[in-house]
Design goal:
The chain is of the alpha/beta class and 326 residues long. The chain has one domain: Aldolase class I (TIM Barrel), CATH 3.20.20.70. Helices cover 31% and strands 19% of the residues. The chain has eleven helices and 15 strands. The strands form two sheets. Strands 1, 3, 4, 5, 7, 8, 9, 10, 11, 12, 13, 14 and 15 form a 13-stranded mixed sheet that branches. β11 and β12 form a beta hairpin. The longest helix is centred in the middle third of the chain and has 14 residues. The two termini are 23 Å apart. Bound molecules: S-adenosylmethionine and iron/sulfur cluster.
């Protein structure tokens, strides 16, 4: 279904939990955290109902995220149920990868198509400073588990944060010379919670691209400047993998935005960077029908804003990134 600006909305990102086993500096505070109680998270049955309604309005692609989606004990069952819904062509997940050694095989068997794994550094100390509670060994174990299970087209997500992992842009991009992965550099965005770091430690895609080119040579655009998801993709000479830049601040992709986001407590956000939400959980828990859900999805699509308002200094105030689902 098209929104009022002619964009085909077919991609639903579902957050399964706002909890996480890490505390990345730009995503979650270290203390005073309150997580959505399990009883208020959408259940597997509710997620299945959402999936059926979403397909009816034209969604065909789902990404699971969080918080850390692998903390859901019923994750494999959720993937199996959603992948069995006729009309859903693709299920992917964004994860920090730490639990993949235990579940990667089962996820693939349940119908998961691809994984994006978040790793901000190749240096033990820098990684632990930025992805607090994280270790490089666990990140690598997750990436290797994904490969061993047979996942292809693995993407690694990197948030470049000035003063924390500047040196890693080059080293991570260098991986594409020998690995068929896509390394994606994401610009820091401000949310509720740790928004100061996003405003003070932001690095533009142009700047991180320049760092990479200074060391490793030119990055040639692939497909002109066509977006791959939200990334603009390049290749180093003789590389087997690719380098992507996700630039919501310096080069927004709002004109091509095709997604809605469902939070773990059942609200649909029309834009990652706007606080407006519609409450789907109320419908689910007040015996609303399939048609009620379909109607609310149509309303959400029609209410999708033309773009974000960061350049006017407006950023989300009601949720951290972990509470929305990145
Ligand atoms: N825990 C999983 C992970 O880290 O991949 C999934 C959820 S996390 C919120 C999804 C993505 O959001 C991560 O890849 C991370 O890079 C990105 N992210 C988190 N906070 C961000 C911020 N303030 N600005 C830009 N990206 C952010
Ligand atoms: Fe957890 Fe992902 Fe947020 Fe890091 S970015 S704290 S891994 S939810």
């Amino acid at each position: 279904m098209k929104d009022q600006f002619g964009r085909e909305i077919n991609y639903l990102r579902i957050s399964l939990t706002d909890n996480c086993n890490l505390r990345c500096v730009y995503c979650m505070p270290l203390h005073d955290l309150q997580f959505v109680p399990t009883s208020e998270l959408l259940s597997i049955t509710e997620l299945e109902k959402i999936g059926h309604a979403a397909v009816e309005v034209g969604f065909n692609k789902i990404r699971l995220t969080g918080g850390e989606p692998t903390l859901r004990q019923d994750l494999v069952d959720i993937v199996r149920k959603l992948s069995n819904i006729d009309g859903i062509n693709e299920i992917t997940m964004t994860t920090n990868g730490y639990r993949l050694p235990y579940i990667a095989d089962d996820l693939l068997a349940a119908g998961m198509h691809r994984l994006n794994i978040h790793v901000d550094s190749l240096d033990h100390k820098r990684l632990s400073r930025l992805m607090r509670l994280g270790t490089l060994d666990k990140a690598w174990a997750g990436i290797h588990a994904a490969e061993k299970a047979g996942f292809s087209q693995i993407k690694l997500n990197v948030v470049i944060t000035r003063g924390y992992n500047d040196a890693d842009a080059v080293e991570l991009a260098r991986l594409t010379l020998t690995k068929s992965w896509q390394i994606r550099f994401i610009e820091l965005m401000p949310f509720a919670g740790p928004s100061e770091i996003a405003l003070n430690n932001y690095v533009s895609s142009d700047e991180s691209k320049q760092w990479i080119e200074d060391e490793l040579g030119p990055l040639s655009p692939i497909n002109g400047q066509a977006l791959d998801g939200e990334a603009r993709v390049y290749r180093l000479a003789d590389s087997v993998g690719t380098v992507g830049f996700i630039s919501p601040i310096s080069n927004p992709y709002c004109d091509d935005c095709n997604r809605l986001r469902l939070t773990s407590d059942g609200r649909v956000r029309m834009c990652l960077l706007s606080d407006k939400e519609l409450n789907f959980r109320n419908i689910l828990r007040q015996d609303g029908s399939h048609q009620d859900l379909v109607t609310l999805f149509k309303q959400a699509i029609q209410a999708k804003p033309v773009g974000h308002q960061l350049k006017h200094g407006i950023h989300p105030e009601n949720r951290t990134m972990s509470q929305i689902g990145g």
